[in-house]
Amino acid sequence: MVDAAHQALKKYFGYDQFRKGQDQIISRLLDGRDTVGIMPTGGGKSLCYQIPALLFSGVTLVISPLISLMKDQVDALGNAGIHATYINSSLSFAEGKSRLAAAASGNYKLVYIAPERLSVPDFVRALERMNVSLVAIDEAHCISQWGHDFRPSYRSIPAMITRFKQKPTVVALTATATPHVTADIRQMLEIAPDGVVATGFARDNLNFQVIRGQNADTFLLDYLKKNQDQPGIVYAATRKEVDRLYARLAQKGLAVGRYHAGLSEQERASSQERFLYDDLTVLVATNAFGMGINKSNVRYVIHYNMPRNIEAYYQEAGRAGRDGEKSDCILLFAPQDIRLQKFFIDQSEMDDVLKKAEYHKLDQMIGYCHTETCLQDYILRYFGEQSPQPCGHCGNCFDTREKSDVTVDAQKVLSCVKRLRERYGKMMVTKVLAGASDQKLLSFRLNRLPTYGIMKDRTQKQISEFIDFLTAEQYLVQQGGAFPVLALSERSLPVLKGEVKVLKKGSVRAERLAVDDALFDVLKQVRKELAQTEFVPPYIIFSDQSLREMSVRLPATDH
Ligand code: ADP
Ligand code: MG
Ligand code: ZN
Ranges for the Helicase ATP-binding domain (predicted)? Predict the structure, then answer.
């Protein structure tokens, strides 16, 4: 690493060493190579552009959606003796103009701008005249529709970059990017595949946990009582739910505040402020709260409802433990959360292709709530990390119940799905397996199938939960949009062929472990058919081209 960078780190920020990824990103930028930097929340992304900003001769433009944070950042830089300013909608027209003029005459090393400014032609023309060395795009996932927080104004960034007389170096930084989103960011900014520096997403101080089948209110109250002096956030899916929980917790004497977009600006600002300064210990909020909240000692983030996808979940949960201390990330799952999220997707303005992609992400979120593998592992795989190791401290890693062999049950379910030609949803599969005499089932003559009633010794609830488990472990997949059908996956085949065992925690009845005759016949047929079909992955893979052509909004967050 260049000496000058080390010196600047020590001189201006007082740190002795770069963190993982920082030195790599910084030395690339100093060489003028455009870079996508992916580091977890709290990983130190700001320094990745602040240090080069000090060493470049021209200005560094920082594009950030977090207006509330700009002032803090600029003040902090000022205190370190670095000239910086910001331009956003909180300033008067005259003030904005005069800052811009000062920036153009080289008075600042860093200028923070809100992306919305890029749609003001006068503003862009003034920018073009500046000597810009580096463009830093913070929260870069906002540029992609496949990210969870798409901002249409981010789309103006690539055009802006091309308008400078001399092309500035570009760095795009984010903490939440799936491989899909990363590819999208790269394409849009024309950064080569080898221009991605990723340090990994793991946050080892976070303890993930999913609570199912318990009364959510009781769990929440118990937890909060046990952790009364610890600051934390409770996320709920709707404003109404936030109001209800807020009233309930306040009544129990907890130092609780609330935050959602339906409240006055004043009330929101006050909740945020009081929470930041530990005047309130619990904040109940919708997803309107949080992006850019700089509170490092949040000890827990509890999701009272399941969020709509893993990206949103990881970003929200990731607001816990930014100081590196152990913190809890707890998700309270209830089946009606699925209905709510589907409703949000249906109500959104997205076109059908995007809706389908959102449904697919929702399925993976549901999978998180039912998996028995390490929860951190599950999240990291979602973000494309190769073979992460079990964390050893999440709810599932701690679940030491013995595993039982449920291969036969799995074979029954998978055979039934195959026999139904992968054309029915979970409900119908459940009914067929249970041997229910449902009208629709009878009118389709599904009671004549050989798999009809082969699990009639179970309740429909048991079967349905078992299907959730098989889906979470990817022995089955949900295919399609609002009314998904169950389909086989690559993992189904070895199970049907009897090549691998399916193990599940918790009790199953031992006498069911022998293959019975009815199943044996079905299996024989199914295996024969499978031998003739080639496996096609059930999900549509979107081409990069189709990604770029679509310009529809993602479902609304509560802003
Ligand atoms: P991010 O934007 O990735 O979430 P920040 O840039 O806000 O993270 O940095 C998080 C914290 O880490 C800040 O308090 C910052 O001062 C600190 N930090 C960053 N780099 C270093 C470093 N090299 N050594 C020590 N602390 C650092
Ligand atoms: Mg940041
Ligand atoms: Zn784990």
Answer: 26-195
Q: Which residues of the chain have pLDDT under 70?
A: 1-2, 291-292, 481, 507-518, 532-559
Q: Which neighbouring-strand residues pair with 398?
A: none
- Bridge partners, residue 527, by sequence: none
How far is CA 154 from each of CA 52, 172, 360, 435, rounded to the nearest angstrom? 23, 12, 25, 53
Beta pairing class for 206-212 and 35-38:
unpaired
Write down the H helix ranges in 9-88. Answer: 22-30, 46-55, 67-79
User: Using a 6 Å cutoff on CB, does residue 37 contact ligand 1?
Assistant: no
Residue 19 Cβ < 6 Å to ligand 1: yes
- Quote the radius of gyration of the chain (alpha carbons, Å): 26
Q: Find out whether the beta carbon of 464 lies less than 6 Å from any atom of ligand 1.
A: no
User: How many helices and strands, by DSSP H and E, does the chain display?
Assistant: 23, 17
pLDDT digits (tens, 9 = 90+) for 163-187: 898 999 999 999 888 888 999 999 9
Q: Does residue 310 contact residue 379 with C-beta atoms inside 8 Å?
A: yes
Task: State the distance from the centre of ligand 2 to the C-alpha of 41, rounded, in angstroms.
Answer: 7
Q: 3-state class of 252 per DSSP?
A: coil
Query: Which residue's CA is minimally distant from atom 17 of ligand 1?
Result: 44
* Residue ranges in 110-206 assigned as alpha helix (H): 121-128, 157-162, 179-189
Q: Is any ligand 1 atom within 6 A of the Cβ of residue 46?
A: yes
| Complex ipTM | 0.98
Between CA 9 and CA 15 the distance in angstroms is 6
Compute the distance from residue 324 Cα to the ligand 2 centre, in Å: 15
**What local confidence, expressed as pLDDT, does residue 291 receive?**
65
> Identity (one letter) of the amino acid at 458?
R
d(CA 122, CA 126): 6
